[in-house]
From TrEMBL:
Taxonomy, superkingdom: Eukaryota
Entry coiled-coil feature ranges: 373-419
Xref: InterPro entries: DDHD_dom, PA-PLA1
Protein's UniProt name: DDHD1 Phospholipase
Domain DDHD, first and last residues per copy: 427-670
GO CC term, one of those recorded: cytoplasm
Biased composition (Low complexity): 525-544
A UniProt-annotated Pfam family: DDHD
Amino acid sequence: TALPERRRPGGGRPRYEVVRELGAEEVRWFYREDRKTWKPFIGYDSLRIELAFRALGSSGGGGGGEPAAVEPVCVRSGLYEVDVASAESYPVYWNQTEKIPVMRGQWFIDGTWQPLEEEESNLIEQEHLNRFKGQQLQESFDMEISKPVDGKEAIHSLKLSRNHVDWHSVDEVYLYSDATTSKIARTVTQKLGFSKASSSGTRLHRGYVEEATLEDKPPQTSHIVFVVHGIGQKMDQGRIIKNTAMMRDTARKVEEKYFSNLATHVEFLPVEWRSKLTLDGDTVDSITPDKVRGLRDMLNSSAMDIMYYTSPLYRDELVKGLQQELNRLYSLFCSRNPEFEEKGGKVSIVSHSLGCVITYDIMTGWNPVRLYEQLLQKEEEELEERWMSYEEQRLLEELYITKQRLREIEERLHELKASTISKPPVLKFKVENFFCMGSPLAVFLALRGIRPGTSGSQDHILPRTICNRLLNIFHPTDPVAYRLEPLILKHYSNISPVQIHWYNTANPLPYEHMKPSFLNPTKEPTSAPDTESASAAPSPTTSPVMVRRHYGESITNIGKASILGAASIGKGLGGMLFSRFGRSSATPQTMETGKDGPEGDEKKATTVGTPPLPHSSSGFLEPTMELEHRIDFELREGLVESRYWSAVTSHTAYWSSLDIALFLLTFMYKQDQEETDKSNLDTI
């Protein structure tokens, strides 16, 4: 098979050359994660690691004296550092128990360009230099595809522990396995699919296929995204890191495909804040029966989150924990990237599940104590309205005056304090976009008394001064997700969420040009013909979630049902999922049958105690107002998903979705584009 062309940035080296020691640009460093194959660092990283490695060697590391300290090398867009002395890499922004090994590649296997293990590589390299240094080298890969060497005599040979290397000429070097059990033969045959590495030998190359250059470097980060999880289980620390890595890798693919011409770059950082908290120690864990752990973990991550967060004991600790971690990460990032703030770098947050509620509360400074004070005030007002005896009235007036006095003293004390210490802002940065995924935020807001208003502005629930844009993403069958738009304008409960484009849609319509489309008005159960209800594939309009939830006022009923359903863990998973769908008695079977499709759903939906929507003559509510910006965005459902199954998995299916990665980047790059366009206009 033909070799990949050796790419030489400088227009190639002379055809004939003398064997010399490998240049720093010919060596390539690799890293290995999760015990998978070795991955090459990009040129910029590899070259800097090699220079640090050489500095370490030349500073007399082995000469009995103390090895000189070499600065760790920043790699992989600044997310990791490499400690050359210990040949390990570790993340900068989060903790990871497993270190990531790195290795120095000098000799490579033909075809895959995987490096030979370092010890063997060193031995072969030493032998090669001893035997051939100063000799003329013919650039064979320019002139010929490697000729079979079976009949050719070896001019030099080196015995290794389980294999030997034969030089048939200066640049025709083959590795032969001496024992079929040899580790290298095994890995070679497994990875490369050679039938008999032992008989045919494996061709080796000295120096990597591509020279490392400092130009091969990642673009500057212009936008950071903090990825926030729910509370989850204590043992589960690693999951947000893995989820963020999935999201980052997916976003990289999308960037390469759609945004490669832009010199900017979006970086995703996991906000792992749960492990720093003590909360209940492991009390809840210790009271969980053994048999149900697997199922309970899935349930607990949502239900337990909600219970922790509504517990006055832990709420403050949770809010403070997340807030401190966000600020720590931002400060650390800015200290390592001093030009980020100067160049107007932006920050967005992606939160999942209950993480959305906690992030919202940090941004807005919402506090349950405020709610309690409002309730007390209301009680007082009610007291004043009823008839009272003279004595009662006198006492009440005295109480009123005392409270007034108390408030004045508190305020004066507060002013004195405030003059000495100015209160720092809660977050050290302005949030550009707040993306909620699988978020129960709407239920929390509804239960805190937020009701639809008359203006179509996001300010009704999240002021634009705090956060420029709020976007709520959900999978149509996610049991924990709720819509936000009907909390701003009530009639949006009858307008379907915006459908998120599939990743591979050619020339999709920009989201701001998509017109609102109405959901099917609720029909009388009898009027739907059989054929219609039997179509099992859910289309966006018949997708069960939408029919089931008539938002408006009833969002609170269903919301309560859901949270209480989640909280009474005894009901098990089914109870949690279906109390939210208004049919706790449903079994997985009834969900799957096509006959019990939209039509059956509607019958059951009305049992939640939902008042039917008021209809105008045209079949749906008259639109009075439109939202300034759409907020609810729904993933398009795959046609093959069984509804029961997707209800279980959909709550965690956001991380690796290409559709979501494209959606996030579309909004982040769009703003960056708009601003550069604006500043270009200004200069003109």
